[in-house]
Structures are given as structure tokens and as C-alpha cells.
Specification:
The chain is an alpha+beta fold. The protein has 28 helices and 17 strands. Helices cover 41% and strands 15% of the residues.
Length: 642
């Protein structure tokens, strides 16, 4: 696991201090660093390494093929590299290391970019073919590993993190108004846009061909498998198949030459991963697991149950060691650091939870953590999946009647989690079916988000722009895809990739810890995609078939516990610890000087939230994070030096 950075230019680019640029992603790879360059052609490739497989110098990158034709930089893990190596050896290839990197390079040399279809892993990879002067760029199928690109005026640059491009001098820090709108509406930016106008994300399962500093071609080499089939087995047999697939996925991702542990929240997903990991690693000692305790404020007002008692229950049941980091409202003192590390102004304090857990794991000598991320996104489990299932009772109503439902939603109070959820369920009832799917991901109504922007930004876009990236994703799906399949596609392509996986990767790598996600194993994703909707979301029970699968392995009260989240008491903190920060960075004078938000609209939002008329906690937190991002990446007042 590592960080990669590089660029190619056609002679029009001014000189870049490449070593300095590489230093800004150094946290991702504290164990080694390498640079390969061909100054005559104008190509620089760099990597910082976190040594996980074959920790010797044999795994050093950039890696050059035996014939010198191909140079590769690679961030990630290829879980099926041993099978691929055996196949290549049978075809006549020879290897000098035990690294997956060498196998990946040999695979490309033999099959070209078509090798991507053979990979099961998490990766961002770039190949430079010296003879054809072609750069090939790809990101893993589910987008677990990040990859950012900048393409302008004959220069193409890439980096595992935006800060490598921004602080490295490749890109101007010019705000993208559409991404600002997206961060207000969703709390993250779906699709390829980032908060910086000329930096884009390579999308999950996407590959690029670059020549002469220009993107010649981009395509998707992988699409999520949507192939629901009627059950030909009993539910009991399907549950066994699911359990076996989860076990196999965990087994694949235990490959490591350094100490490995796991997140353990006490929820079904992380508990299932720990259950099978603990079995597989029993001969190596007790599995080391990590959780968090949030003090100084109740999460009840956030609609969450307390995680820690469940994590302790699972740890005892599975006989694993549980390390707990306790944090209170002082965690907010590290908010500027969180914003810096995330690259984008993502207003989710759960990222700090991931940072603290990763730090604790690192302090205990752990360099790899297994995560339960992805279970809700392939098997269902979020409240919006249940809400979508309820549309069968009203979704077919004539639009005028659905408009009445939408209008009535505004009458519900914002003082409790239940009323907030009911209001959100019907707020967009009058929209067309696909747009209703997208609306379930909104935190703020499009018109309200649009109204918070400064007039200059509002003139550059329309509130409807919020829906465009997800509409494009839905347009690529089969015409017979069910509403739930469509929603799960949006989960995996956007909420999971653009939000959850992004902050998990950045927080883990900031501490020198690689985070793996067994529930996103390609075979498991394929199996989940083939299962009928009604055994994934069954009435009120999300992940129903997954829960049935885990009944032989986990306590019943853990499997069927209340739905919770990886959260903190943000609403309490906005009225306490964070109040001075809100008053400072969201003051009319400060906002007017920055020019992104309308000071009067923001002041009205603060007043309405504090009086209890509305719940705007995450919107206000999002604006604070946006301002903190600007303070660092626009003003140069960085929370961290590198």
C-alpha cells in the first residue's frame, strides 16, 4: 500500500519540483520512496511505500519490467496475485520477489490493459509504455483506492491525494461551484468533480489512455453486476452460500507480511468480518480489534445507539482482543487537521473516529486493518432502503396526490430523529421515480442549497445540477433494473466511493495503516447482485439474508441490534464546543470576504437551527468545513506542514 504521483507533459510545462510534490503524500508511504524519470520525453513517476507484502527492497517502486519497456507505479493490494503468479509462471514468466506489484507488472506486460479484468483487489495503478509513449491509468472496480487527475495544456498529472497536485504546483486552486453545491446538498461530491475546478477523480472501474499529455480515451472496464435471478435454492442454502462467500473474501484479504487487525464497531458488518478473521488467524494468536468510545455528549439526539457495548459483546463471544480509544468533545480541536487530510471539505466527524482508531492501531504495531464497510451498500441496511420499500404503498399515486405528501412533510417538527426521517421520506414524493431515488441521498433541499451560495456562484449554475452525476450513473443501468438495484448502484458508485471509502482511506493512510474491505470482494459483490431484492430488504429488516447467514456465528442480539452509525453528538457540540468556531468562521464579515456563501442566508440558517425551528446541524458543519478548507488550500494556512 502506498501513494503514487506523476506527470507527463509535451514540453509546455514549467519545471516542477517533483520531490517536493511527492513529499505532500509522504504519510501514505513512510517506509520507502522512489522516483523514475525520462526528462527527454517529459515523464516523472513517483511512489511512497507502506510495505505490506514482501517488505524487502524487491518490492521497491517505480518498478521497471525486465525488458525495460514498461514502468509502473501502483497503490493497493492484489488479493488474487498468487493465482495470477502461478498462471504467469506456467506461461514462462519468472519472479524475483514475493510482491503483488511484480505480478501486476508482469500481467500488464503479457496482456496489456486488458489485465484489469483479471484483478481482484484494491488499487490505483499507472503503467508507462516507453516504446509507444502511452500512459495507462486505472482505478479498482469499487473505487476503494483514490486517484485524482489534472489534465490541462498538454500536461497530465495524477496523485493518490489532491494535496499532491495542489501543493505540488500542478493545479490552480480554483473553486468549482457545482462541487460546492454538491457538498451542501449531499455533504460530498458525486461523480468525477472535486472542489477544485481542474482536478477530477478517476471513477470506480474506470481506465484512461493518455498520450502527449492528453486523455485520448476513457472507459469503464467494470460495471456493477446486476443480475437478479429467482431463487432456485432454499433460503437456508442461500444463507450458507453468503456465509461461505464472506469467509472466502476475508481469507483472501488476510494476506500480509505485517501485523493485521480489524475495526470492530459491534455492528453486523464488522462483526462478520472479525468472526471469520479470528477463525482463520487462531493459530497466530488472538486477533487485535479496535473500537471507539465517544464521551461528553449523548448520540441519542443523532438517532444512533451506543456502539461500544455491542463491540465488547462481540469481542468476548469471538475471543478477540478489543482496544478502545476514548474521545470527547476535544476531538473537534483536530477538525482543521481532518479537513486537510481529507483533501475535500467532507463534513463527517466519523472521519475523526476513523483517524483515532487508525492511530491506536498504529501505536499497537498494526499496519493493516480490516473494515466492515460495504455491507449496507450491497445487501441493503440503510434507512433509505426501508423507505424505498414503502414506496409500494404510495409511489404509484397520481402526481397531484404525491405533491400533497411532499407539501405535508414540511409540517413535521425537526426536534426528533423520527420526525426528521418521516419528513425526508416524503419531501420529494412528487419527483419522477429516478430523481426520487437520488433525493434519498440529499441532506439539504436543492433550492435551499442553491440559496446559501453567494450571488456570483449562483449565477454559474442551477439547483438542478445536483442531480446530474447520479442521473448519468442511472442512465448506464439495464432498463429492467429494480428500484432497489438502482439505489444500491448509487450507494456503491457514489455514497460508498465518494464518501465512506474516501475518508476511511485518507484517515488510515495518514497514520501508516492500510484499510481493507472484505465485503467488497468482487465475488461477494457478484453474489449479492444476483439475489432477489426481497431477501435483501425484507419488510423492515435490511440485510435480511446476510443476517440469516451470520446466525450460526454471532449472537442474535448483535445481528438484530438497532441500526446505528459511526457518529458523534454533533448537534450537541454545535451548541457547545463548536459554537465559537461557528460564530467566527461563519460571521458575515468572514463570509463576505470569502465570497462563496451568502452571509444573510447563512445567518438566517444559524438562527433557525439554534431556535429549534429546523435541524441544520450537518449543513452548518459543512459550511464550517468548507471555510476551513479554503483557509488552508486557498489562504495557505495549513493545519499540517506536509
Amino acid at each position: 500500500m502506498c501513494g503514487i504521483l506523476g506527470y507527463i507533459h509535451n514540453g509546455t510545462r514549467e519545471s516542477i519540483d517533483f520531490s517536493s510534490a511527492l513529499s505532500f503524500i509522504r504519510r501514505r508511504g513512510p517506509d520507502d520512496q522512489g522516483v523514475w524519470a525520462d526528462t527527454d520525453v517529459g515523464v516523472w513517476l513517483g511512489q511512497v511505500r507502506l510495505s505490506i507484502l514482501d517488505t524487502t527492497s524487491a518490492g521497491h517502486q517505480p518498478m521497471v519490467s525486465a525488458d525495460g519497456r514498461v514502468v509502473m507505479v501502483f497503490n493497493g493490494e492484489i488479493y488474487n496475485f498468487r493465482e495470477l503468479r502461478a498462471h504467469l509462471e506456467a506461461a514462462g514468466d519468472h519472479f524475483s520477489s514475493q510482491s503483488d506489484s511484480e505480478v501486476l507488472l508482469a500481467l500488464f506486460c503479457r496482456y496489456g490493459i486488458e489485465c484489469l479484468s483479471r484483478l481482484n483487489g484494491i488499487f490505483a495503478v499507472v503503467f508507462w509504455e516507453r516504446d509507444t509513449q502511452t500512459l495507462w491509468v486505472a482505478r479498482d472496480q469499487l473505487g476503494v483506492k483514490p486517484l485524482y487527475i489534472h489534465s490541462n495544456n498538454g500536461c497530465f498529472a495524477f496523485s493518490s491525494e489532491m494535496k499532491g497536485l495542489l501543493r505540488g504546483g500542478f493545479s490552480k486552486t480554483e473553486i468549482d461551484p457545482q462541487a460546492v453545491l454538491a457538498h451542501l446538498g449531499f455533504l460530498w461530491s458525486p461523480g468525477d468533480r472535486t472542489i477544485v475546478r481542474d482536478i477530477k477523480k478517476v471513477l470506480p472501474g474506470q481506465a484512461l489512455c493518455v498520450r502527449n499529455g492528453h486523455i485520448e480515451k476513457s472507459w469503464f472496464y467494470y460495471e456493477l453486476p446486476i443480475s437478479e435471478k429467482p431463487l432456485t435454492k432454499t433460503v437456508a442454502d442461500v444463507a450458507v452460500n453468503v456465509a461461505d462467500a464472506v469467509r472466502t473474501a476475508v481469507q483472501r484479504q488476510l494476506v500480509s507480511d505485517v501485523p493485521l487487525g480489524s475495526f470492530l464497531s459491534g455492528g453486523l458488518d464488522s462483526s462478520a468480518v472479525v468472526a471469520f478473521a479470528a477463525q482463520e488467524m487462531r493459530d497466530k494468536g488472538r486477533l487485535q480489534c479496535f473500537s471507539i468510545r465517544v464521551d461528553n455528549g449523548s448520540t441519542a439526539n443523532e438517532g444512533f445507539a451506543d456502539d461500544l457495548p455491542y463491540a465488547q459483546r462481540v469481542a468476548k463471544h469471538l475471543d478477540v482482543d478489543l482496544h478502545v480509544v476514548g474521545v470527547g468533545d476535544e476531538m473537534m480541536d483536530r477538525l482543521p487537521e481532518m479537513v486537510y487530510l481529507l483533501d475535500e471539505p467532507t463534513p463527517d466527524p466519523a472521519a475523526l473516529n476513523a483517524l483515532f482508531i487508525s492511530e491506536l492501531a498504529s501505536q499497537n504495531g498494526i499496519k493493516v486493518l480490516l473494515s466492515g464497510a460495504g455491507g449496507d451498500d450491497i445487501f441493503t441496511g440503510y434507512r433509505r432502503h426501508f423507505a424505498l420499500a414503502q414506496e409500494r404503498w404510495w409511489g404509484g399515486m397520481p402526481r397531484p396526490l404525491r405533491s400533497v405528501l411532499a407539501s405535508s412533510s414540511s409540517l413535521l417538527p425537526a426536534s426528533s430523529p423520527l420526525s426528521r426521517r418521516l419528513g425526508k421520506a416524503f419531501r420529494y414524493a412528487d419527483l419522477p421515480a429516478d430523481d426520487r431515488l437520488i433525493s434519498y441521498f440529499l441532506w439539504l433541499e436543492p433550492d435551499q442549497a442553491y440559496g446559501l451560495l453567494a450571488p456570483d456562484l449562483r449565477r454559474q449554475l442551477a439547483a438542478d445540477d445536483l442531480f446530474a452525476p447520479m442521473r448519468e450513473t442511472l442512465s448506464r443501468l439495464p432498463s429492467d433494473a429494480t428500484p432497489l438495484d438502482k439505489m444500491l448502484t448509487l450507494e456503491c458508485k457514489h455514497f460508498l466511493t465518494d464518501h465512506n471509502l474516501n475518508y476511511t482511506d485518507k484517515m488510515g493512510m495518514a497514520t501508516g495503516v492500510e484499510v481493507r474491505v472484505p465485503l467488497l470482494d468482487l465475488d461477494l459483490v457478484r453474489l449479492a447482485g444476483s439475489l432477489p431484492s426481497d431477501i435483501k430488504q425484507k419488510a423492515r429488516e435490511g440485510k435480511w439474508i446476510f443476517k440469516k447467514a451470520m446466525e450460526p456465528y454471532l449472537p442474535h442480539d448483535v445481528i438484530y441490534r438497532p441500526k446505528t452509525g459511526f457518529g458523534v453528538p454533533l448537534r450537541n457540540w454545535l451548541q457547545g464546543r463548536l459554537k465559537p468556531l461557528v460564530d467566527e468562521v461563519l460571521s458575515p464579515a468572514s463570509l463576505l470576504k470569502r465570497g462563496i456563501f451568502d452571509p444573510k442566508a447563512v445567518a438566517h440558517l444559524i438562527e433557525a437551527d439554534r431556535s429549534g425551528r429546523i435541524d441544520a446541524a450537518y449543513t452548518l458543519f459543512g459550511i464550517v468545513c468548507m471555510e476551513l478548507w479554503c483557509k488552508q488550500y486557498l489562504d495557505g494556512d495549513f493545519a499540517l506542514d506536509g
